[in-house]
Amino acid sequence: MMKSMPRRTLLGAAGALVAMPAFADVISSAKMTASGGMVGGAATKKKPPYRIGFSNGFSGNTWRTEMLASLRNEASHHPEIKQLIVIDGQGSITKQVHDIQNLAAQEVDAILCIANSGTAVAPALRTANREGIVTVPFNLPVSGTEWTAYTGTDPSNKGYVLAKWLRGALNGEGKIIALGGIPGNSYTAAAWAGAQKAFAGSKIEVLAFKDAFWEEDKAKVVTADLLAAYPQIDGIWADGAQDGAGAELALLAAHRPLVPVTGDDYNGLLKLYARYHASEPKFDIAELSEPTWESVVALRLALKLLQGEQVPKETIITPQLITSANYSQYIKADLPDGVYVDTNLTEAQLKTLFG
After folding, report:
1. Domains assigned to the chain
2. pLDDT band at residue 30, thresholds of 50, 70 and 90?
3. What is the Cα–Cα distance from 221 to 238, expressed in whole angstroms?
4. From CA 90, how far away is CA 79, in angstroms rounded?
5. Is 139 left (phi over 0), alpha (psi -120 to 50) or beta?
6. pTM of the entire structure?
7. Cα→Cα distances 267→89, 90, 245, Å
């Protein structure tokens, strides 16, 4: 995704979404592939207007802020949507299960969901699905198949690709720490499993794996504790760049050299690299984006299902790879650190969100 953000339609036979009206064609250029066959048709068709529920597992970081803004913006362009109900799970697995159950009790037509726990929410989504409610989890995988459709990136492959890059950056040997998201989430579990496959057979030593909640401040505190325990840290594997940025800031505070780090498309890490890479020769980055417009794809899937059309069971989004070689094409130097750069929001909308 270039900074100018080329427009695209969601096209394609087996794997993609049919183009929506021109006002909605704001998704950045990206490859999407399908798996699991096609679902929908008469079984999911309902008459409009529609009431759509969204169970957001938590809203504690700026990725969620952008994602939700994109969702609300998309919904506002669809007159067939009577109501969009957003419920914040506040990071609680138990609350989110109850939230999904409450949405089902309100007899919404569709439930979108980013799961705090892919296993814990699966029964609630299964029940809603059996009650005739279209269920579209996205971003974080949900166990089983008793939901209607899913969209997101492939966290296992992302974890593998990032770890392979880090292995190369360290020439196959060194001591690293690993940082994940909220405890128990399915995304980090899958990403870390992929990473371990990439590290296998190398001389990479994983000193510690810690949950850092995908929050820069928490990652800085977690890393500071690890720095006290480990005098040598050569690299950082993180599935989220807020964690990666926080870790590098902890290194700076401890007057330790900056090291190769991975993550997603967090502007703060890009700006940190731009500021320090010339003076920190070991500092390097690899980011695989987690598009904040996944919510738009999820909503479009739900609407197509409600309109009786068929969609792929799984729509997998190929992320953008950002490294030191091309970071200047992605960095938003005039916007806050918290911005995620793979977004369909305009710079004006981002400034409104973040100041």
Report:
1. 22-153+292-318 (3.40.50.2300), 155-288 (3.40.50.2300)
2. low
3. 15
4. 30
5. left
6. 0.89
7. 26, 24, 9
